[in-house]
């Protein structure tokens, strides 16, 4: 009987053994984190959050911002991180390009301003809103109003896709800004709304406004951490508490049926529709969830600065929010938080660096443009690209794949 030709004689090359695949530091950390049990992840995450909370009180010299208050920068970062997480639901998870997200941010801020500012004809602090708790009560109202505005905008427009949807959302952001500027009898126009309510907590004789008042400068020589913290640190703590709550909600949402529908719509909306996913309903959900988170961030901003006007909600800020998502990594919750930190921290850090008599902080938009070009060339999916995995039973599958030969599963060796 004739011997069959070998693979080499048939022109088939034998497989070449490849060496170990090189992985970056981010991938190694991701694999290490995924291998931890849920209690171990909390055991690592809680101390990390505590260290992050102490950062504004004891800023290391290497990351301090000499040109401005470091705790104020961290408060701004917490607010921007909240915006980035909300925008990530719309852009990163559902794949809807929203260029006018600043409109929801403005609606949340003006909801608080119109109800609590003495310059507003709708001021309710002398009525059903008590001055000490007015801001706290207005936060859920701001979330509800922005979610409804997302419903109103999304219902007629979310049947559009791609560039058309981007243009519509861009127009929405500009419409909100122009309404705030031209409805002078209500919004006080370009003069803005001042003395907006904020949480009155911990008022003393020396600091009657409380911990969150802009007059709270903190006592750097105090051994009491609460007395050492200035208003920026308190706003940072509150902002991070909001971010953690939203991350838990969004994380559970990702692992649910709704999250899997978002991923299907992002990858291919036509195929998702053919497979029975009601795409319009889930896109509307994503829009409303993202809008509500944006309204929460706007309420946080209004209480922190206690003054709002239309110039703070221009299209440039909307582009910066989108930059945080793109640079950090669309779809990655922790990645967009890193992107928000870079967007906020770097201009403030370079503000004290002068070259030729000019502060480098003045060139922040140039730096953003260069950073986007570099990221799009070398890391088109962002600094921390999302790793798509099985959203249902993902941890069980991971453990089964990485089980050692001596382990058993369900009694079967």
**Helical amount:** 55-70%
The domain count comes to 1
Would you list the SSEs in sequence order as H and E?
HHHHHHHEHHHHHEHHEEHH
Q: What's the level 1 CATH class?
A: Mainly Alpha
CATH architecture assignment name: Orthogonal Bundle
Structural class: mainly alpha
How are the strands of the largest sheet arranged? 1-2
Instruction: Tell how many strands the DSSP assignment holds.
Output: 4
What coarse outline follows from CA principal-axis ratios?
globular
Q: What's the CATH topology label?
A: ABC transporter involved in vitamin B12 uptake, BtuC
Query: C-alpha Rg, in Å?
Result: 25 Å
User: Low-confidence spans: pLDDT under 50, at least 5 residues?
Assistant: none
**Count, helices:** 16
Main pleated sheet: 2 strands, antiparallel
Q: What separation lies between the terminal Cα atoms?
A: 42 Å
Question: Roughly what fraction of the amino acids lie in strands?
Answer: under 5%
Average pLDDT: 83
The multimeric state of the shown protein is: single chain
């Amino acid at each position: 009987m004739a011997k069959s030709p070998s693979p080499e004689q048939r022109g088939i090359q034998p497989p070449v053994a490849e060496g170990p695949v090189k992985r970056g530091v981010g991938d190694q950390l991701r694999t290490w984190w995924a291998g931890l049990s849920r209690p171990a992840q909390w055991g690592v995450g809680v101390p990390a959050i505590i260290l992050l909370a102490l950062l504004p009180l004891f800023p290391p010299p290497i990351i301090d911002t000499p040109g401005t208050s470091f705790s104020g920068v961290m408060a701004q970062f917490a607010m921007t991180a909240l915006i980035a997480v909300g925008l990530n639901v719309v852009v990163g998870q559902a794949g809807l390009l929203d260029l006018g997200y600043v409109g929801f941010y403005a609606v949340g801020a003006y909801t608080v301003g119109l109800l609590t500012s003495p310059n507003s004809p709708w001021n309710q602090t002398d009525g059903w809103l008590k001055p000490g708790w007015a801001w706290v009560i207005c936060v859920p109202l701001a979330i509800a109003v922005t979610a409804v505005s997302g419903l109103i905008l999304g219902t007629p427009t979310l049947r559009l896709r791609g560039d058309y949807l981007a243009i519509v959302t861009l127009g929405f952001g500009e419409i909100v800004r122009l309404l705030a500027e031209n409805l002078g009898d209500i919004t006080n126009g370009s003069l803005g709304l001042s003395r907006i309510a904020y949480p009155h907590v911990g008022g003393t004789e020396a600091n009657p406004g409380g911990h969150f008042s802009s007059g709270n400068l903190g006592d750097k020589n105090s051994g009491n951490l609460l007395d050492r913290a200035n208003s920026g640190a308190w706003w940072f703590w509150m902002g991070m508490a909001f971010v953690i709550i939203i991350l838990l909600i969004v994380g559970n949402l990702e692992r649910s049926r709704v999250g899997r529908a978002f991923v299907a719509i992002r990858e291919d909306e036509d195929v998702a529709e053919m497979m029975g996913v009601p795409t319009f309903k889930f896109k509307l959900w994503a829009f409303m969830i993202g809008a509500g988170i944006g309204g929460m961030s706007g309420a946080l901003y209004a209480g922190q600065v206690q003054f709002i006007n239309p110039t703070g909600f221009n299209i440039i800020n909307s582009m910066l929010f989108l930059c945080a998502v793109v640079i950090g990594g669309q779809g990655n919750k922790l990645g967009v938080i890193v992107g928000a930190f870079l967007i906020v921290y770097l201009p403030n850090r370079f503000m004290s660096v002068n070259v030729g008599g000019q502060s480098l902080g003045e060139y922040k938009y140039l730096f953003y443009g260069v950073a986007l070009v570099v990221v799009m060339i070398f890391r088109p999916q962002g600094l921390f690209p999302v790793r798509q995995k099985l959203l249902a039973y993902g941890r069980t599958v991971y453990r089964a794949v990485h089980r050692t030969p001596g382990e058993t599963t369900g009694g079967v060796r």
